[in-house]
Specification:
- Helix content is about 80%, strand content about 0%.
- Helix 4 packs across helix 5 and helix 7 packs across helix 8.
- The longest helix has about 30 residues.
């Protein structure tokens, strides 16, 4: 079974240890507050070990964003973006680092290189959602009096709002009913 496979598994395990620790650290301290020393403590590795796998804090952050985007794109493709939002309500702890998205917003405005990487990551989720909306529309399940990209913009806006709510710790009981309303609002009327 050769040395290659063992070291590959080891690398993958190490990578996911780093990402899990980083996620917790970003969740607790925010992007700016997640200093290298705090990252070392949360991850349980030295900066040398951490930055051997990820070029810098940005790279770490974008890898987390990509993990989330892929997971969300997968759900969006199969069950729709509203299900992604329901998952966020059910498992807020998996999305607790999203508070940093508010910090991301600031960086997106000021840092073109970061913006380019981020846009690329977000594109997957958008593509998956759009494809599913088109399929649902073709099947007659979605309202057809509104262009698909407008429906997408609407759902995106709700998603951003939900993320802001989760990030600020306000996930009160009626958000699930709000998502029912969102779902009903894009469905085709019988």
């Amino acid at each position: 079974m050769g040395f290659g496979k063992v070291s590959e598994d080891h690398l993958a395990a190490r990578r996911s240890q780093i990402l899990e620790g980083a996620r917790a650290c970003f969740a607790e301290f925010g992007y700016d507050g997640a200093t290298v020393r705090r990252l070392e403590e949360a991850i349980g590795l030295s900066r040398g070990a951490i930055f051997h796998h990820f070029r810098d804090k940005d790279a770490l952050f974008l890898a987390l964003a990509q993990e989330d985007a892929e997971r969300m794109a997968d759900v969006a493709a199969n069950q729709g973006i509203v299900q992604v939002m329901r998952d966020m309500l059910t498992h807020p702890e998996q999305f607790n680092w999203l508070g940093t998205r508010l910090e991301i917003a600031r960086r997106l405005r000021t840092d073109p290189e970061f913006r380019a990487s981020w846009t690329q990551r977000s594109a997957e989720l958008t593509a998956a959602t759009l494809a599913r909306l088109e399929r649902r529309k073709a099947a007659g399940a979605l309202r057809d009096d509104v262009p698909t990209d407008v429906l997408l913009g609407y759902l995106d806006l709700v998603l951003d709002g939900l993320i802001a709510r989760i990030a600020s710790g306000h996930t009160n009981e009626n958000l699930s009913a709000v998502l029912d309303l969102v779902e009903a609002s894009v469905r085709r009327k019988e």
